[in-house]
Write a structure and sequence with these properties.
Length: 259
């Protein structure tokens, strides 16, 4: 159960600074509220972005007192003994314990630099390829596309024709500029036509796709470099830890007697 920020701010406005917690933050009808519970709640609130101040400690103390008063009322009505509540409490306890255990497992199973480098090499080995800087003109009619190709070959400006005739709202205003991209980002027919061209070439015939008829120009081609190791190191560490956690879970499952 988390402490709502809105409730905390109301409490902060209502209470002045409080002294540091003793062994218990309060005793309600003979039931002590341990300081450890207050510290845990403060840690939750601080994790949400608030600062640990005397005002916050005072607000947390009041919140815990309110909770204890309500808990005692619930106990008098037998709520903790209801089967549905017991089942939820068991699930919550299991979740808290497993979360703490996983945190410890990950902390104690940090991958080595060699393992990280090996995973990086494995992932980037199949990466790479090329990306293309393209311009295109999209029209609805094949004959119009052929006429525009003829004009381009005769010396007309590709960019001016794109601004005048292209039906692609994303690139027409920029003269048909599609910027740099991996050809795999386009539909197969368009990608196949683009990758068949050399730098500076324009398609000799219109390229038909589900969007219409395209005239494509390749402005430049460059290799796609994988990101540096340090940039993707956190993701690789997380992946290696998850793989180790899953392997350990599988091992425990195999050793368990399940009936």
């Amino acid at each position: 159960m988390t402490l709502k920020k809105t409730r905390l701010w109301v409490l902060l406005a209502a209470f002045a600074a409080a002294p540091a917690f003793a062994q218990n933050v309060a005793v309600v009808n003979g039931t002590p509220i341990p300081t450890s519970r207050a510290h845990a709640l403060i840690a939750q609130v601080v994790a949400q972005g608030q600062q640990d101040t005397p005002d916050l400690e005072k607000a947390v103390r009041e919140e815990l007192i309110n909770r204890e008063v309500l808990m005692q009322a619930a106990a008098r009505q037998g709520i903790p003994n209801r089967p549905d509540v017991k089942a939820q409490l068991a699930m919550a306890q299991q979740q808290v314990i497993l979360h703490a255990w996983i945190e410890d497992f990950l902390k104690n199973n940090q991958p080595s630099d060699a393992d990280i480098k090996a995973m990086y090499d494995k992932v980037t080995q199949g990466a790479g390829g090329k990306e293309y800087h393209l311009h295109h003109i999209l029209v609805a009619d094949e004959q119009q596309a052929k006429d525009l190709i003829a004009k381009i070959k005769a010396g007309a400006s590709f960019e001016d024709l794109a601004k005048q005739y292209s039906k692609d709202p994303g690139s027409a205003k920029n003269g048909g500029d599609l910027d740099w991209s991996d050809p795999k980002a386009y539909v197969p027919e368009f990608a196949a036509a683009a990758t068949s061209l050399q730098k500076g070439q324009v398609t000799d015939t219109p390229v038909h796709t589900q969007f219409g008829w395209h005239i494509i120009r390749v402005d430049d081609i460059r290799a796609i470099a994988p990101p540096p190791l340090e940039q993707v190191r956190p993701q690789i560490v997380q992946q290696l830890q998850q793989e180790k956690l899953l392997a350990f879970e599988k091992q425990l499952r195999a050793q368990a007697k399940i009936q």
